[in-house]
Design goal:
By secondary structure, the protein is α/β, with parallel strands linked by helices. The chain has 12 helices and 15 strands.
């Protein structure tokens, strides 16, 4: 009896939350007729604090460059710190909808984006995924659209490149969470299909990682190639321990998705990563005029080198502006998502679009080699794979 009573109470609370979110969502459209509010949930503190800074800086830069009015509406950006805790992200998304009446959400790290998805769906709030690199995230809500990347987009391409360039025996070192698992899986699939062998897959804790024991184990296995995924914010500490363990001079080829040569960290790594080859979506050295202007403006505004996380935020803001122009300022979720599907534009990273079927990002992936230019390391692009889709969704669709 008592159990039943509790169950009924729980269902009632859940139902009122749904009604509350739904009603508030609708109210948002009436009450802020002349304002468009965008609430972005990212880590601003802790191990991944750099990610939130980069997203916030890039979104503010976009507004500063393009004006804070679009389709007759004033744009208001609200940034919330979830400290990389999914429960915080969920609560903050609820508060942004119910208290701040936001018209758009921005979702950050994979675990937080997963936790926010039911909230965005219930309240019908269009949400731009500006950081997460895990394939499944966009399938968690029909109101999710991604401007970041997937690890699969990069990891298969670098595996094929390694095979073509003589790699036969690889060890993987992966940050132990969803994007790491995905990078490792797509890499291993391509590498073994190409005739290579994976000697071991080593998983490093996400928070406060110590790479040394894993680097030692990898060294002992004597692979010809080391495939590494560490998330944004960890490339600097990784490079330092890589050099300390003597791997820099071991003859083992270091490769990975673009995260291991993150432009936010590269300037601090001296020549440690020179020669490292990665497949990535963005390099601050991308030679277009649009990118040169972006890198200069970002540096002037923040003091930092623009990186692959920042373009997720910058393009996320572009997508919101472009969708609002297309709907003449209407913020109705179905109209906005309809406008975003199939949208194409030129980004600092190169041409990109939103897949109309999957709402996922389609973009060029570049193979790049770290080289010293004017005394600083840069990831210099030398081969382009145009309009790459998320390979895991491609496989599922077949
Ligand atoms: C993610 O949240 O999926 C993520 C974050 C940072 C990265 C890669 C993936 O560098």
């Amino acid at each position: 009896m008592r159990y039943k009573h509790l169950m009924a109470g729980g269902i009632a609370i859940a139902a009122s939350l749904v009604i509350g979110l739904g009603a508030r969502g609708a109210a948002a459209q009436d009450s802020n007729n002349n304002t468009v509010k965008i609430g972005v949930v990212v880590p601003m503190t802790g191990t991944s604090g750099a990610v939130g800074r980069e997203i916030s800086d890039a979104m503010h830069l976009y507004i500063a460059q393009h004006g804070d009015t679009v389709a007759g509406k004033k744009v208001e950006l609200i940034i919330k710190d979830d400290q990389s805790v999914p429960d915080n992200a969920k609560r903050l998304a609820q508060e942004l909808i119910v208290n701040d009446h936001v018209n758009f959400l921005g979702a950050g790290l994979t675990p937080s984006a997963m936790a926010m998805a039911p909230i965005a769906t219930q309240a019908k709030v269009p949400t731009v995924v500006v950081v997460s690199g895990t394939s499944i995230v966009t399938e968690k809500s029909p109101y999710y659209v991604r401007t970041s990347f997937t690890l699969g987009q990069q990891s298969g391409i670098i595996a094929d490149w390694a095979i073509e360039n003589g790699s036969k025996r690889a060890v993987s070192i992966l940050s132990d969470w969803a994007p790491g698992a995905e990078a490792g899986k797509v890499f291993a699939d391509h590498f073994t299909k190409g005739g290579g062998q994976i000697l071991d897959t080593l998983k490093v804790p996400l928070a406060n990682p110590d790479f040394s024991p894993f680097l030692q184990r990898a060294h002992d296995l004597q692979p010809d190639t080391l495939f590494v995924f560490v998330p944004a914010g960890q490339a600097g500490p990784f490079a330092k321990q890589f050099a300390e363990r003597g791997l820099e001079k071991s003859g083992i080829k270091l490769i990975g998705p673009g995260d291991i040569v993150d432009d936010d960290d590269l300037p601090t790594t001296g020549d440690t990563l020179v020669g490292v080859v990665t497949a990535g979506l963005y390099s601050a050295a991308h030679p277009s005029q649009l990118n040169k202007d972006y890198v200069a403006a970002y540096k002037k505004a923040t003091g930092h080198r623009a990186n692959f996380i920042s373009v997720g935020g910058y393009d996320g803001m572009h997508l919101i502006y472009a969708a609002l122009k297309a709907t003449n300022g209407k913020t109705d979720a179905d109209a906005i998502i309809g406008a975003m599907k199939g949208m194409k534009w030129e980004s600092p990273r190169g041409p990109m679009s939103i897949d109309p079927q999957t709402r996922d990002v389609v973009q060029n992936i570049y193979i790049r080699k770290v080289q010293m230019v004017n005394g600083e390391p840069w990831a210099i692009e030398f081969k382009t794979f145009p309009a790459v889709k998320d390979p895991l969704k491609e496989v599922a669709a077949k």
